[in-house]
Amino acid sequence: MKELKIGLLLGNEISMPDAFEGLLKKLNLNIKYNGETFTFNTDRILIEPFNIRYKPNYDMIIERVSHWHTNPREWLKKIIIDGVYVVNNPFSFQSMEKHTGFCLLAKLGVFIPNTWLLPQKDQSDLLQEALELYSTFFDLDEIADSIGYPMYIKPYDGGGWVGVKRLENRADLHETYNGSGKRMMHLQKSVEYDKFCRALNIGPQILPMQYDPDRPLHERYVINFDFLTPSEGEKMVKITKLVGSIFGWEYNSCEVGIIDGTLYPIDFSNPVPDSSVMSLHFYFPWIIKSLIRWVTFCGVTGRKFRFDLNWQKYLEIADMDIDFMEKLDKYMELSADYFEEDKFKEYCDKHLPHLDEVAFEYFTSPEMDKIIEKKVTKKFPEHEHEEFIDHYKGLRDFWAKCEYNKLTTNE
Fold first, then answer.
1. What pLDDT digit, counting tens, does each position of 307-346 carry?
2. Which of 169, 202, 390, 398 is deepest in the core (most CB within 10 A)?
């Protein structure tokens, strides 16, 4: 028997790790694969100094903090070299900021809105002689006019909507750019969307959700099962899966604005996606179940971490004289290979056929009630505790009703 140790590298998470550990314990997995029996335990990782010859005692890591904390990011790189499987990829996350993502997907034929990269406004820390020789004055208004208002200005490498502003006119543009300091900024045409969708991918598992960024955090994910047409849903799944496979992000979210059935990805470099019961509510059980499927699959089957992302294969398809949907189908063949989709499906069908039923019992249990209560009392003021505990339990109960119908009708 081999016990696989799953490390949880966390930031401010409360509900996600509690539920992951709780459901994994309730499952009590003993998976027989290639003549060996695998069990699992978890450990919450402390951030601390490490020796470059340190020998890790983890088999897999779910990482949730290296996007803003340098020490664990470098620790992850070291243990990946030692053979530990990490979800997500700290190498590509560090090197491929949002700008690289826009450039690559645009090359692949995805409909990225018109986007320009601007030099940083404050160049005082750059080499003065080089600035005098090679930096050029440019007409900011000319660039903006070529894009067209309204547009957004946002950091080329940013996250969490920090530094993002909608620009309606030249006055907005100059005021915001003049105040941007040393950060390089994108100007990007606003997508005046009919629909807005955010999809999560965990491995090859994709969950599209209606998303309203203008609502408070706990209301942004809208429960609406039919807001995408079949064609829009198919494209949303494929584009999200493309992003995950080409960048090596196996736990990511992709946001698109949709106009007349055309999908415009505007933010997809999110390898630490929102995973809290407070924001995901109805969709929260999907995340936990999907993580258990993917992480146990990677451990049991000995999946190797992919250092090489094979962009050339995607670029060769991009250069073909075929339409975008034909290209997208060919990208999906590469994506299926990256995620080992056939092998993953076979693993889930054989070793986790009971997951949904056990998860139903878990998410309707007093243990899940306590997770909800713990999150609400941590994040909401005391006078709102009772209201929001009832609110989230009500959403959980609605999920349970929908899930029960699925389990009993096999739909």
1. 888 899 999 999 999 999 999 999 999 999 999 999 999 9
2. 202
HEC profile of 165-205: EEECCHHHHHHHHHCCCCCCEEEEECCCCCEEEEEEEECCE
Over its C-alpha atoms, the chain yields an Rg (Å, rounded) of 23
What integer is the mean pLDDT of 390-403? 97
Contacts of 276 (CB under 8 A, 6+ apart): 13, 14, 15, 16, 284, 375
Contact (CB, 8 A) for 8 and 17: yes
Domain with CATH 3.30.470 in the chain: 99-111+192-271+318-336
pLDDT per position as a tens digit, 275-299: 999 999 999 999 999 999 999 999 9
CATH of 2-95, one of 3.40.50.20, 1.20.1250.20, 3.40.50.11310, 2.60.130.10: 3.40.50.20
Report d(CA 167, CA 292) in Å as an integer.
Answer: 42
Residues in contact with 358: Cβ distance below 8 Å, sequence separation at least 6, in sequence order: 23, 26, 27
